[in-house]
Amino acid sequence: MHESSARPRGGNGKAIAAGLLAMILGAALWAVITVVTAHEFSLVAIGVGALVGLTMFAARPSSTGIALVAALFTVIGCALGDFLAYAAHKDHIAFSRLINVEMHHPKLYFDSLDGKTYLFWAIGAAAAFSMVLRRIQAARAMAAAPAPYAAPQQPYAPQQPSGPAYPGPQQQYGQNPQPYGPGQQQPYGGQPGQGPQYPQR
After folding, report:
1. TM segments (predicted)?
2. For every one of its 201 residues, what pLDDT tens digit does the chain have, with 9 covering 90 and above?
3. Comparing C-alpha atoms, which of 58, 46, 50 is closest to residue 18?
């Protein structure tokens, strides 16, 4: 069997589209939580990874590369959400101008991040990767498993009656008599080799 035939048919394109939407939604949630609480929670990165991973998991992907895409979407979603929160704190600068500045000087944004932020980004990406990869491996294992053996059904055979056996058409009474051999009793007490003897009156 070829390897391509053992691979399940999945929705790789659907998984990428769903993961892209989950990435945008996760970034928006990151920014909203940061702005509302006025505090940056690095744990939100794990939530973004879980959101991306579960969304792409539900799309039933079949290619291992989709797991890498899930990890990449998680990192981009975390970076985008953190950047939106970063831009919200720069209220004295127009958002379009801030993007223009960051595009020409990206080091300004990345210098504002610390090692803890990158660590949680990596944890979120690993979570999304493992979720999608587990789904792909499970789908491939089910596709490669042999079909359960089903015993062929026997044709219906009517049961024979359980009563005494009767002679068939070829075994009629009086046919093929068995000769009396030595040691067998003759009728009416006769000896072997002699005619029948009748009881005396």
Report:
1. 15-35, 41-59, 66-88, 118-136
2. 444 444 445 588 999 999 999 999 999 998 888 888 878 788 889 999 999 999 998 888 888 899 999 999 999 999 888 888 877 777 666 666 667 766 777 677 777 788 888 899 999 999 999 999 988 888 788 877 776 665 566 665 556 655 555 555 555 555 555 555 555 555 555 555 555 555 555
3. 58
* Cα–Cα distance, 197 to 201 (Å, whole number): 12
Cα-Cα-Cα-Cα torsion 171, 174, 176, 181, nearest 10 degrees, comes to 130
The DSSP letter of residue 124 is H
The counts of H helices and E strands in the chain are 7, 0
Give the C-alpha separation, 59 to 22, whole Å: 12
Q: Which residues of 63-99 are buried (b: 16+ CB within 10 A; e: fewer)?
A: eeebbebbbbbbbbbbbbbbbbbbbeeeeeeeeeebe
The closest alpha carbon to 47, from 55, 39, 36, belongs to 55
Tokens of 188: 């009416």
Q: Tell the residue number behind the tokens 């744990």, with chain if given.
A: 43
pTM assigned to the model:
0.63
Residue with tokens 């009416």: 188
Q: How far apart are the first and last CA of the chain?
A: 95
